[in-house]
## 1
Amino acid sequence: METKNGLGRWRKQAYEDLKFYQDICEIRRFIYQTTERFFKTHLRLVSQMRDAARSAKQNIREGYRKGSAGEFANGIRISLGSLEELSGDAEDCLEDKLITQSEFDKFSALFQSATYMANQYVKSLYKMDREGSWNVPQSALRKRNFK
């Protein structure tokens, strides 16, 4: 996804190149598509799963926008909590035969990839923060200057 900067041009946000963010976006799309067939019979479950998938993506965006390595890491950790919730729901759906083994395996592969890489990235964020090498997103700098 690209956002419009003050000059009317479009630019990509740095987090969008992170593999774990891309996996989380794929998880969100997968959950929306997969739950479509049992949307009417399990409305609350579908709503919770879709909310968790959406939250996993949006918390990364929010944490990044806050402009510090600590806030970004916190957003990623919150995102991981949402993914863990979603993982439990996926296990329940498999057990209740709402999804196939193949669908569960696809979700599990994305989940494992996203959580492993996100955890590694959080470690690197803390290291960058200690070293002072974290670059504050320009959008966060502009936001601070208006206060």
## 2
Amino acid sequence: MKKLFLILAAVGVMSFSAVNVYAQEATAAATEQTTDEAVVADEAVVTEEVEMNVETDVEGTPMHQAIKQKFLEGGAGWMTPVLLCLIFGLAIAIERILYLNLASINTKKFMAQIEAALQKGGVNAALEVARNQRGPVASIYYQGLSRYGEGLDVVEKSVASYGSVQMGLMEKGLSWISLFIALSPMLGFMGTVVGMIVAFDAIQAAGDVSATLVAGGIKVALLTTMAGLIAAVVLQLFYNYIVAKIDTLVINMEDSSIILVDMLTEYSKKN
């Protein structure tokens, strides 16, 4: 009986111990799994934060701040003149573009109105139409019609002379844009030369060639050159557009002048 009791007690103790060990192992395994998951999660968060920081450093910098930084790195003493050339050149170019766009009219419609006014009300009616219209073509027509009483030869000379005046008004300011186009890269190259001189002075003072010594001077050289070329390219695009616009207006003026003389010739024959 005692042996049976001892056997049952031993079996119970062993069973309890086994259950306890199994529970401890399960708990340890669960704890280890939880710890591993937490470590993986922390690593993922850290990786994501690093990637976000990298993206912010690479892509998060606004354009104007990047340009400002490069401007300061290039040196205000050499970048400022290039910037002023770009600003003044753009100001003149925009003013010319607005002027030429306002000077552009529907030439065919205007000439039709002049012809209709001549047939209905004569030269005075045509003068009134030309006076109320803007642009160089209307100005030429007004000058030609106002000289009609002096003869067709005088009308032709007046139209030709005033056409030259209108061309001069349209080309006003182009010489300044050309100056800024030529001056911008020159200033950039001057900054390049100065930057290289600074780099060689640093090498001479140190007595050794080191990347850290020459990096600053070379950076100034490259940035000033790039700024000058960018300013020249931008202004050149505006300049070519303005020249093309002026050429179109000049062709319209010449064609309109010929048509005006023809209209006045027909009108004089009928009257």
